[in-house]
Every structure is written in C-alpha cells, then in structure tokens.
Amino acid sequence: MTLPNVEPVWMHEDSFGEYRSVLVAGNEVLAARLNWFSYICAGTIAVAKVAKRPKGAKRAVCVTLLPREGFEVEVPDLPREASEGSEVRIIIHREPMAERGRFKRAQGRFFNDEAAAGSIPPMSDVIKGDEVQRLPEGAWEEVWALAAEGEIAFPGGSLVITLTPAMTLIDIDGTGSAGSLSLAAVPAIATAIRWLDLGGNIGIDFPTIADKSERKRVDAALEEALADWPHERTAMNGFGFVQIIARLEVPSLLHRLTFSRASASARYLLRQATLLEGTGRALLLTCHPSVKAAIDESWLVELQEKTGKQVRIEANPGLALEAPQAQIIA
Fold it and tell me: What pLDDT tens digit does each residue of the chain (330 aa) get?
C-alpha cells in the first residue's frame, strides 16, 4: 500500500450505540474500527468478583460488578490472595466475541489502581484522534460496503473474506498466472485487513505457486504492504498458504456484520437517516423485520432530536438485512 504524502489522522464519530473510527490521509481511508457502546469494551477498568478459580491456579473466571454487573471475564494473572468470592479490579483487553455456535468470554488482566475502577476511556483516548460531528463524506460507506459484502475487487481478481471457527480466511480468485494474480492481490489484502480491523488468526489462501523465487516475491510484497501493521507471519508454503497472527482486542467489522447483522444494519440505517437533506416533516425508515426489531427506542429519540423530524418505520421482509432504506417524506 502506498500511503499519500499527508499525515494520517484518526477521526471518531459516535451515535446510535456505536463509535465509528477511520484513519484518513487526505481523501484516502487507511484503516477503520467499530466499537459498540458497551460496559465491557477494551480498556474498561472494572470491579469484579472471582467466580471460579481452581486451587493453586493463577487463571480465574471473574464476574463484573461495576460499571455493569454480570459480564464473565477470563483473567490469567490474579494474585494468590484473590480467592473465590473476593473482589478484584481488572482491565479488559479483549471484548466478548460471538462466534458460530459459541460465545467467547471477555479477557482481562489484574489491575491494582483503585482510583481508576469503573472508568471507560473514550475511544479518542484508546486510539488518539479527533472527535468529529461527521466522518468525511463516503468514508464510512466504503468501509461498510466491504464489511457487508465480504468481498473486494482488484485488477484481475477479487478477495472473498469469511469467518471460520479457526480463523478469518482470505481467499483469492481471478485470472492470469498464479504469481501475477498473487502480487496483484497484495494491496487489496492490506486494505481489507486494515479496513475490517482484522485480528487474531488470519489465513490467506493464495493460488499455488510452483516456483520458489516467485513465492518469495509475493512474501516480500506482503511484508512491505503490512510493514506498519503489528503482526507475525509465516512464509508462503508450497500450497500458497500464509498464516498471520495479530493482536485481537475488539470484534472486527466482519464479526459484527456476520454475527450481529441485524443490529449492525439498524445502527447503519439510523446514521444514514441523519445524513439526508431536503424538506419534509418526517423520516421513513424501511428495513427487514429483523432490523426493525433491533432498533433501540433510545436511538429513535436520538434520531428525532438530531433531525427535528418524526420517524416512521416500515418492515419489508423482501429487503436484505444490510440494505435498509431511509427517506424524507411530507
């Protein structure tokens, strides 16, 4: 990825139960992150009770008390005196994550600064950047489209990005020789990883390249494209497979759109409604019934306050979850 000659800056926009962040340089989006307002987000310092701790083990399962009750957190480093039933302070470093057929607990570490207990840092403190009323025009829409489709085109081919229980898998398809197709895919891979905020275990399935020197050229191109992104990576094997391990703190955009598609679409719909311009006294939101059910009442109040318009919602089962519509009506 060739970065423009402009200092990149994070911009943050919050509304309707989520915190949207993009890293931009000039008019180019370099990276994105989506946080849903939560009392158990990465960086939260919580008071918790030790619920399960095998005798002699440092690892334990704790249940939060403040700032919100009832979240289970795995903590690997509790001090010896923190027995079952005692209260401890922990800092969350990975949020709870839904996966197909299971739910992963949040993960945290022991924290001994009592003065900070129960605090939730704003995203501008977690990722340094500027709070804005509105992100640059079209920036979030581009990111959303990639997350919703799970596919990105590049000259001569496309990437299909899917979640599996073991890893996020990036599959490459297209025309031309295996080597040229793989090299052409590298910039798109770098974009997808940063835009979707991917982390954890990532597998890239390149076409099989027989020539070892060609595989090394693809490895070198991938190393350059991801040079400023913290990760560990294997060299391409004889079957074209590359494995990447990166830090995972929050569910990626792909996670949100895969496992909480209706809720993610509801938030997107209300944001799009605030961007409408024109005369009229009401907003009409049309969406799939599952998306309508996912709209929180407080978000509708927020939408009315922001736009000064009445809000009507109509369910249409023929609409895809990720394709809700908003319009101004008389």
Answer: 444 457 889 999 988 988 899 999 988 999 999 988 666 777 788 899 999 999 889 899 999 998 888 889 999 989 989 999 999 999 888 888 776 666 788 889 998 765 555 554 555 455 667 888 899 999 999 999 999 999 999 999 999 999 988 899 999 999 999 999 999 999 999 999 999 999 999 999 999 999 999 999 999 999 999 999 999 999 999 999 999 999 888 889 999 999 899 999 999 999 999 999 988 999 999 999 999 999 999 999 999 999 999 999 999 999 999 999 999 998
Residues 6+ apart with CB under 8 A from 215: 209, 235, 236, 238, 240
Sign of the C-alpha dihedral computed for residues 269, 273, 276 and 279 taken in this order: positive
pTM of the entire predicted model: 0.83
The H or E element spanning position 184 is helix 178-195
Q: How many CB atoms lie within 10 A of CB 82?
A: 20
Domains of the chain as residue ranges with CATH:
9-33+134-246 (no CATH), 45-119 (2.40.50), 276-329 (no CATH)
Tokens standing for 252? 């990626």
N-term to C-term CA, the chain: 47
Residues 187-215 as b/e (b if ≥16 CB within 10 A, e otherwise) read: ebbbbbbbbbbbbbebbbbbbebeeeebb
Residue 150 contacts residue 161 (beta carbons within 8 Å): yes
Q: Which residue has the tokens 């289970």?
A: 72
